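Help! Submission page says 'invalid entity' but I think these are all valid:
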Amino acid sequence: MKKVFVILCCALLCVNLYALPFDSIESEMKARIDKSMKIVKTNKDSKIMADEIFALFDFMFDYELMAKLSLSKEYNNLDNRQKEMFVSYYKKSLQQNFASKLELYKDNTIEVVGGEQIKENRYNLTASIVIDGALSYIIFKFYPKNNDWLIYDVDIIGISVVQTYRSQFADILKSSGIDGVFDRLKSGELFAEE
Amino acid sequence: MQKNNFLSLIFSGVINHYRLTLLLCLSIFLFFLFFAFRISIDASSESLVYDDNQNYKTYENIVQNYQGSDFLLLAYTPKSGDVFSKDSIAFIEELLQKISKLDAVQSTLSIANAPLLKSIKDFSLQDNIKANANILSPQIDINLAKEEILNNPFFKENIISEDSKTAGIVVFLKSGFDYSHTIDEIKKIKNSYKDEMYIGGVPLIVDDIVYYIKSDLLVYTLLLGLILAVVMWLFFRNLSFVILSIVVCIFTLVISSGIFALLGYKITIVSSNYISILFVVNISLIIHLIVSYLENIKKYKNADKKRLILITALQKTTPSFYAVATTMIGFLGLMFANIMPIVHLGVVMAIGVLVALIFTFVVFMSFMMLVRIPREVEFVSLGLRILEFSSNIAINNKLRIYFVAFLCVVFSVYGIRYLSVENSFINYFKSGSEIKEGLLVIDENLGGTIPLEVIVKFATNETKDSINDEFESEFEELAKEDKYFFSEEKLRIAKKIHEYFLENEYAGSILSLHSVSLLLEELGLKPDGFTFSFLYDNLDESLKSQLFYPYANIQQDELRFVVRILDSSSSLKRDEFIKQVKLELANILESENVSFEVNGLMVLYNDLLQSLISSQVDTLLFVMLIIFVLFVLVFRSFKLAIIAFVANMIPLCVVFGILGISGISLDIMTATIAAISLGMGVDHAIHYIHRYKEEIKTNSKETAIRNSHKSIGNAMYYTAVVIIIGFLTMTSSSFVPTIYFGIITSAVMILMLISSLILLPRMLLIK
């Protein structure tokens, strides 16, 4: 299971400060992944490392869209303030998960394998990671926004992060409504923890 | 008169052409004998269901949708008290090697070959998984292995008892095999060791029931035949009558069994007593004919043999016909049960008693022509004193008789309120028997015996008000992929239901998707949707078929919970328990968007019993009404019909009252007693009143009663004695329902005889 989280965190390492034009997705991703791997190997405090890595990758992810998709149709029922809060907590949840697993990445390497435009407005970039001798894959899913491309989901060993959140949120919404979702996001219990 | 002429013509034909008749009978006998040997016995759960049972359809779907297989359980309690000692493990391994070689064995699971995931010291989880180790692997830390086995939700109460003193060996069986041979082989292997070992599991129960039914069929046929011969000899001291009785009984049995086989019916736990019942009906008919014949020899001193036989046959036609008709009605009442084996029993017995009536008369007439019966033959009235005594009581103790009858009614009403029905497999077998001991050890130490299953079906997700957005559609499509089946909602519901059963005092082993969650927790992993999706997407098929397929069906959008219920629990009231489980699950799942069904063998057998009881209650009134109408027809008097009716109902109710108070529960076999014994028991009253009506033509009421006791009383007494002895032979069975059936029916018959000899004549004296 360690493998799962290593890959999840590696995926989050790839957050970019800027959006990408289509032609530079692969090269930009490669460069930033390499930089982030160097940060991981510096043995700094994990909180500091996490901040540095997020500073590198942050704006490559469309958190707002990811949060919206994760909450599905319920997102439209939120008022603007709630939406803002939700996106903020959602992002924090992802980052917390990432920071808590940073120790696990030290001995691993992520390499960009290549990308594929699966349809006009979708591009999947595949990266590989070797954990304990086994090769696994991470797929970054991009979509075009204002002439740039942003990540709206990541598949880790074939499992969609957004889909996992959707499943969790749908169940919490059913049992304890949107307040329950906020409570769980604040508590940091969501998504995969080892 | 016309009827008598017609019958007289037929009977004369039989008597005049008795050799031809016997030859014809022999041909019919041989024809049915051919089929009678093909009759088969079926004790499987499938044999006990009725066609339109929704629960059975669900059960079939479960079998089809989930990869479940039959299994046997072996329990091993080493004398050293340590199942994890080297010797114990080596012993289990040796046992596994022998069992695995058997044809019908698919796989085995025990502490000796259970896969261990965290018992190699200083190995990561991945390395542990890669090592594919079990307790016998050299690198295993035995203490870690012990701890892992005791805490693994799939092993606990399956292959290891909670006190860790008993190890279980689960033997999974291949489908499509006849397990009988495999069970015999496993028993042989088990018996070749001196250590304390037990065997259990539903296939074993089924196999042992079949064995008991088979041996009972053989024993009863021989024993009843022997008893019949002895009793007939004691009564009549004439070899011809003994042979006649046996010939008639064997004849009817073979023809009825042939019909059973020809109709494609199988003998089941419910219908296995048909031989005893047919014997009894036959004996009753033949004794009445013989007694009447002997009376006629005395009465018509100058009549020749042909005439005597004809007179006897004609005299007994009406009471015998009505006696058989009431018995048939009793059995036809079983047809309302909607349960195939019960319906089959009803059909076959209704046909069987009709065959018995026809052929008893035909064989009696032609056989009597064949043999030489000395005219001076004197039957020994063993019960003369009893008959005289009972006629005196009936005549002289009006108030006492009515008072006792009143007390019986009060007692019955009180007792019947406590009547219960239960279907405990463990209690099917005698205490001290090998199977019962094995079932008890496994039930108490290795997680129960009888499977109860819960299927939770998730409602189809609404799509009509979903956001019509490309991203939304993309994720909705993605959610349909198998790996995303394990949503948080499903895991939460699985946990709720699993924990509900954990709290239930009657639930033993519980396996469900939540067991996988517990296993993941044991391994230090968070059991959430992501982990499940990941595992489902990455595990190989063999692991998936152990962890997921038995508990989740993605195509059907269902979860399955397999619970084994503690069959040996004395406080378990199965029907109430199932109802309570349904009610409590409905409460637990009230706010969820799911439907659920409670199923499994426990539900199927309970359905069977409840359906049997409700149909018996529903139709008993109908049977009683028809019998009453028959009484009116045969006696041509409402008063006599009511008297006969009351005289039969009181003893029947008393027996059920006794059952209620003594706490003996009715089961699948004994539940049919009411209808069967009512049908058989009323024969006494029919014969008695028929005779009484003859006597009253020329005598006072008291003399008519005394004469009836002396004449027909003899036949009734003999019949009852043979019937009671016949049913009491059932107590030699190792199958407890058969023993109860024998005792209860004998009790009904004794009370009905007493009632027919005391209460019935007393009521006939009413002016």
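Support: the input was valid. A stray whitespace character was the problem, and the output above is from the cleaned input. Confidence is low (pLDDT under 50) at residues 8-17 of chain A.
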